[in-house]
Amino acid sequence: MYKEIQNIFKLFRIINALAVFDAIFSIKNIKLSPIVLLYAKIIIFFSSKKHSHLTPGERLCRSLIKLGPSFIKLGQSLATRSDLIGDRMAYDLSQLQDKLLPFDFRQVKKTIENELKMPIKKIFKDFQEKPSAAASIAQVHFAKTTQGKKVAVKILRPKIEDAFEVDIKFFYWLVNLIETIKPNIRKLNLKQIVETFAQTVKIEMDLRLEAAAAAELKENFSDHDYFYVPEIDWERTSKRVLTLERINGIKINSRKALLKANKNPDEVLKKCTTALFKQIFEDGFFHADVHPGNQFLDKKGRIAVIDFGIMGRVDFKTRNFLAEILLGFLNGDYTRVAKIHFRAGYVSKKQSEELFAQACRAVGEPILKKPASEISIAQLISRLLKMAGDFEMETQPQLFLLQKTMLVSEGLGRELNPKINIWELTRPLMEEWLQKNKNPRKKIEKTVNDIKFALDHFPELIEKLEALTSQLKKEHS
């Protein structure tokens, strides 16, 4: 009973935050009680004029920021579901900046010393007490190691796991309430959104996993000098503390700053696009939080990235089908697009291939007939995902995160040069990659190399698993 009362009070807090920024539209399809509606209308009457210049998505963003860490993260998670909330709303939510007031340095010091088992002065020669950034899950401080290396140190917020656990339980309660009031909303599978959100947050709350993701991305680009991932300082990294090389550079979307530094924005865009292609298609492992604050151009002219809490994976089979589908759309070959969907098993064989090809044309033509600079493949994928219900299409969860990454990358491209379409830059790369991977010999070589890689790394993997198991046992003892 006490939990129910708590949840109801929290629900009123949400309605208040939505009403203050005139974002009550986001729950307009739910049958709210007359008292709740009256309460919301009174708040809107006194405050909505202040925010009338903002788009609906921007108003929702402000509401989520007011509601706090869990809601900011939920908003970022919703940004991957343009099939549910629309392209414009998804774009606005993808711009949601995760910024909060910092927590006290005494807590920072305590966490570092508890995690790394020694006084902070023995770990760092110099440590800036004022954070360079403070977000919902962690904050970052600049420091210098005892060896004199400049580093960035990320520290989890105190008791953040408990705070998120409470809110995630509330989200499940809220979904059950919504589905009880309006049963037809069940088809949107809101529980899956909460589940995905919970899994993402769980990963972000173990900074060793973020460090491992950074190390994997760095390894993938070890032979490429145009893209840089900072070194991880494993000796100063634990579950709640992550230490990595400090990155300095020009924010990737600052065209004026790039020109002032005599850097060609078109060349920068080409590097970003090539890196995006490699991550998605060649490696199947990509940075999924590519907003401009996480990408810089360093002194060596490399694209340097930070913040590896949200990463995406796409299996080899999906990458192949995705490349063929995108090329089919870019070439206006809708019959090919339809055939690939059926061959991949994304569309039920009970459906008509001809009708699906026609639907693909209806999706593709309005987008692809625009000037090259306005073509959005992210929007194309979004509309394809919206067709899922009409053609009993199999849901592809990995594409939601990928679509959001594409959306943000397209936005960056337009800031650097609105006349260039990043997908025209990647077209030859996709064609070459597909041709290479269609070769039977190459497929056999890839399989053999994958097996060899697995066997070579098996002893190392076992050793790491044993060490991690031992550490987890200590943590829970």
Question: Could you walk me through the main structural features you see in this protein, from its secondary elements to its overall organization?
Answer:
The chain is an alpha+beta fold and 477 residues long. Among the domains are: 2-99, no CATH class; 314-438, no CATH class; 441-477. 60% of the residues lie in helices and 9% in strands. The protein is built from 20 helices and 11 strands. The strands form 3 sheets. Strands 1, 2, 3, 4 and 6 form a 5-stranded antiparallel sheet that branches. Strands 5-10-9-7 form a 4-stranded mixed sheet, with helices on one face. The radius of gyration is 24 Å and the shape is globular. The protein starts with a helix and ends with a helix.
Key phrases:
477 residues; 20 helices; 5-stranded antiparallel beta sheet; 4-stranded mixed beta sheet; globular; alpha+beta
For the termini, the CA-CA separation is 33 Å
Q: Count of helical segments?
A: 20
State the helical fraction. 55-70%
- Number of DSSP strand runs: 11
**C-alpha Rg (nearest Å):** 24 Å
Largest sheet: 5 strands, antiparallel
Give the uncertain stretches in residue-range form: none
Strand content: 5-15%
User: Helices and strands: which structural class?
Assistant: alpha+beta
Overall geometry = globular
Whole-number mean pLDDT: 83
What is the strand and helix layout of this fold?
Elements: H1 2-20, H2 34-47, H3 56-67, H4 69-78, H5 82-85, H6 87-94, H7 105-116, H8 120-123, E1 124-127, E2 133-134, E3 138-145, E4 150-156, H9 160-181, H10 190-204, H11 207-220, E5 227-228, E6 241-245, E7 250-251, H12 255-260, H13 265-283, E8 285-287, E9 295-297, E10 303-305, E11 311-313, H14 316-330, H15 334-344, H16 353-368, H17 377-386, H18 397-416, H19 422-438, H20 440-476
Parallel strand pairs: 5-10
Antiparallel strand pairs: 1-3, 2-3, 3-4, 4-6, 7-9, 8-11, 9-10
Helix pairs in contact: 1-2, 1-3, 3-4, 3-6, 4-10, 9-10, 13-18, 13-19, 14-15, 14-19, 15-16, 16-17, 17-18
